[in-house]
């Protein structure tokens, strides 16, 4: 594919935050940016965790709310505004137009949603929104919806789909990835890492995104700054999981040596494999039809491209602040997806940008 290289505003307005459907600059999005996904018709879907809704953007830039009620939290299923979300975060869409949303719920006793006051742990559910607007729970709070003779889906965290319509779910606590085929068959797609080889035991790292190439390979975006039990810190990196195997380092650095502060490390370094560096804050990842990966490098205000051989380059940005046109810059990109083969959509605080 060939990227032409100009950035324009698709919906919303940079630096203007809030909640409003409509078209163009009349639309308002959250201040912290959103996760984004797209379907085969070129529609995009974004989560709004500040207003507890899921919103749709058509190819013409028209924005509407397809599920949830602005400002109203809940866990109800139903059609459209009958459904409620607690804190919608991640999002993905399959070839049939189904949308999957991770809904982060804080629980006191395992059954009643509670305010996040630091005294309880989050439980992630996966909600399914059909093309007709019906919202249901795909993986429930206790994680027992999908099951086979070997394993159960427990507290899913990050997920993605491929072109064939398979859904991949990562479970960090269990260090494994599940694959759910369109017919509902559940299988193992590999493990995150086996005792974190090469990274030391006790890595506290943050899985922020996944992408699948349709060939059985899954790519995992880990955000850095977790403390290792033996000292040092993890860095932002991309790991590759081949079918049935454990993850291996694909791009970025696995660890920063003990005694080296993360801020002392260069964070915007292009190169191949472990020679590349990313900021400690990277939120989104997507893949194109020929296997190139694109990472929303939030802390570097940039979009990074990774070729199938692991070579990393900076596609957009490096300085904070939105500048449109053929020499663009970005402000804290968080979500990224392809709306068409040569069209990237990027979420930033208050807006969705188009790069083509």
TrEMBL record:
Keyword Repeat among record annotations: yes
Keyword RNA-binding attached: no
Recorded superkingdom: Bacteria
Record keywords, A-Z: Repeat
Protein name: NHL repeat-containing protein
Natural source organism: Noviherbaspirillum saxi
